[in-house]
Amino acid sequence: MKNTVKKLIAFIAAVMMFAMVLPTFAAENTEDTPAVGAVGEGYVVIDCEGLTLGQGYYCEPMLLSYEQIVNIYNASHDDQVTVETLTAGHATLVMYELMGWEYHCTGNIPSGTIYISEIKDIDTGVIDIPEVITNNGSNISNDNNDGNDDEWLGEFDYSWMSGWMITVDNFMIDVGCAGWLLDGNHSSHPISDYDGTHIIRWQFSLDCYGADLGIDTGWGNEAFFPGADKGELTKLYAEIKDLTNWFAENPSARQAALDVLTHLDATQEEVDAAYQMLYNAYFLGVEPTPGIVDSFVVTDAQAALGETFPVTFSIEKYSNLCNLLYMNVEYDTDLLEFVSYEGGQLYQAVAPDNAYAENMPEEGIVECVVYSQDAETGEDIPIIIESDTASILTINFRIKDGAAAGTTTRIGLSIEGYDTVEGETIEHEVSPGTVNITAVELQPWQIALDTTLEYIFNTVAEPMVGSVGGEWSVLTLARGNYFDTLSNEYFDTYRQTVIDYITESGMQDHGGTILHARKSTDNSRVIISLASIGIDARDVGGYDLVTPLFDYEYTVWQGINGPVFALIALDTFAYDAPEGVRESYIENILNNQSPGGGWALGGVSADPDMTGMTIQALAPYCESNEAVRAAVDTALEVLSELQRDDGSYASWGVVTSESCAQVLTALTALGINPTADSRFIKNGNTVIDAILRFYVDGGGFRHILSGEINGMATDQATYALVAYSRFLNDQNRLYDMTDTMPEPPVYQTGDIDMNGSIEVSDALLLMRYAIGIYTLTDAQFALADINGDGYVNTIDAALLLREAAALN
Q1: Per residue in 161-199, pLDDT tens?
Q2: What is residue 756's DSSP assignment?
Q3: This model's pTM is above 0.90
Q4: N or C: where does the chain have the smaller number of CB atoms within 10 Å of the terminal CB?
């Protein structure tokens, strides 16, 4: 008991001593008090951050000397530490004690295994998850998360992959924090501090084990963004905050630094610029422009020759009202061409209401002048700018056609305004004030793709239901993103054409609507096309095109084409199918593999067209089905052997663009880059080189090299290039159209045929299932349990019949 009291008194004394030191630092510099910028060996800067939740700092960067950490820690813990044995864990617990936080942890300091699991009462309860997390594949968002249902913030809050993570000197340490000796030798990471000062950051990771912090931990998730090294800025901020009173007199400079420090995905350029601004302001007396804190982002850092790209500048007003404001953007006139200016009214004027902005381009200068006009006299008058308004300015440039690919240009921004209080001109040059933009030449395949998408749109102006001039043209335009959105007149017209065609020519059979008595591929083709434009083929004007593909005998009747395209169609929207349907088609396909590998419509020799199509159908199952993987691997060997010296493929002895197109689509479906995989490069030629030999300048493709533009060849070659483009841009593969899926409809219990109403026909379907002559999908089964007892039987059918009769 006496020892405990002595420890408590010692701790209080140590904390009071620590608190008394800071004003001494601020008052004057002595031999024992380092100046800002002179802090080095024997110091730690430590903080605690909730940036992934949008909650900023829980503990702002705190400057501590080794001696302070040792004294405070030893005053409250039985295990004693020295300067030589100081770890990141000791510094962490001292921070918690100084902040007065309760915490839970596993392990302990002496064992070197301590892990901080949660901290009490720091979560504000208000989340604003940055878009860089929600837009990078995270399973959580501001509207969809598990929440934090208690007063502790730690592991498993908000997501099952959340928790506290620590970096020391911009390195995520690979041992417990108590096992990381601050001045020790670490085989995993050499000592790399900041002029003798260690920067310790505790960050709450919301998802993917630190990927949301800009760190690739090697645990299976790539970093969501390139994490910036904030060490120098963090150190300078902590020194000024804890050694001086300067921030009290310069709150805008403090806020400017905080804005960058607490910006989760701040770029290295932004961090370096903030450091330089704070350094210049404190050490050189070069204050930032009154009221203006600048940051700017190139919204498209890479543009092709001849393309227009935007450069966006964001200027935030914090204090000191300004009026007439000039923003001068300097650029290289040999490389760039000014196109237009966007942004509308740059600032919200207090008076009058009709303030406007105008641009006056000169060679190399875009001068954006903000002013307003007196409503009565027409005289220009100053705009009064509110201190908390924000402005977005976008200037569109075009890279000149004559510019060499790979050229880099520099764009600079300077701001000039007039202080309304002092009446003095203020000028500010953004530091570093430059951004790099690289001109990139369009590849030949990109030119062929762009021109042929335009060609298809112009020549297939009114797509019909059919293999040529119909579904494949629609799919190509949709998956090639020819239109900005899937909601447009072209696709709406096609949808209505399909409905009209079904109404006139469709037949009710095999549980739904069929388009051909024998060829299930007609249904599959239309299903695929409709999925590409976001339409569920289970209800196309009231017609169900999907259910007939559950009928095995109907689907496989026409040979291997049937199950191949049925699988592709069913997987476009991951349609719910009765148990065993997909498995039966996969088994059929594997049983029909050619003796040497690969597939063909007939005979024993593999055909590149059919082999390519079949691989496209099997691609989604390669990871989960060993037999599929083995069959596909063998087929790839066959395709490699079949490839000719010029990179092309021949079907039935004739080299065609379609054969090349199906192989290219197959390779991209498997995530294989045909320009990098040596198996598919012959004498330096790839299948893309081969396809481009069939291209006709201005748009379109030939079937054979000596032929004219061919509709089917054009569709297949173009959607193959679309598949390649999607592969390069990490988009869904060509036939994975879950990215276009509409929100699923909600059906009432009992609506077995899912047509939006409960009828006697639903009860009859249920009765047919109960007596074993009808198969329900999983979704239908969930709707069929009328009494909720977990079973579907004749009792449910009787209840549903009674309900349907009463409703009708």
Answers
A1: 788 999 999 988 877 788 888 987 765 566 678 888 999
A2: S
A3: no
A4: N
